[in-house]
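Subject: Protein record for review, amino acid sequence with backbone structure tokens
Why sent: The fold of this protein is of interest and is recorded here as tokens.
Enclosed: The protein record, placed directly beneath this head.
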Amino acid sequence: MTGSCIVRHFNHFFPLDDGDEALLEEFERHPEPMRRHQHLWRINETACMLYTLKSGWAYAYRTSPRGEMKVLEVFLPGDIIGLHDFTFGHHLTGVRMLTDGFACAFPYQDILAACEQSRTLTAAFFADSARERAVMNERLTTLMHCSARMKLAHFIIEIRLRLAGVTPDLEQRFEFPFNQKILASLLGLTNVHVSRVLSELERDGLLSKQRRTLEIHDYDRLHEEAQFNDACLHPDMHRLCQ
């Protein structure tokens, strides 16, 4: 199996041929080491580059009128970061590293060139963007209408399923590098509320969290509580490529 995170990410949608994989691997040719909290870009900076994460995690954020950071999205290895700003001249959000890792920068023109050479990759980029929107809609619905316990369970299942798309043989114990502040910002809760709900889930035997890792002890029960719609992670690529 290829060692490229971005290839595994897109193979999750649709089998790629050698030519498609070679085009995607070009996006990871120049990985740069990134430190935790380091910015890929800041809000309103000129948008001219995209990034893919070869390793590590990152997040997008906005700043509220009160100066509070609001986390909007989380990026995992293999994700392409910046597609939402593709048609704008500046970045609408800031993006920072959540962990140490390696990020690969490439100009917008590289995406256009890849699309010119491969109909499959063109469909894959559309599908990836559509999946991001579907996941965001799923999360927003939960944030607006569900309990704190369901919000947290829903997000944990989302991350577990997204990781499974790029991590072969992912087990129920996996990296989960979120502190209470980040989780609270992302889910619209307080730090105290996040701590209380995590303790409840642990006490009920559903999971356990230790620093940067999380282990799910009863996936079926946690998934049932989350009511996560798995379909939002699986676009119909076969229909797009007909």
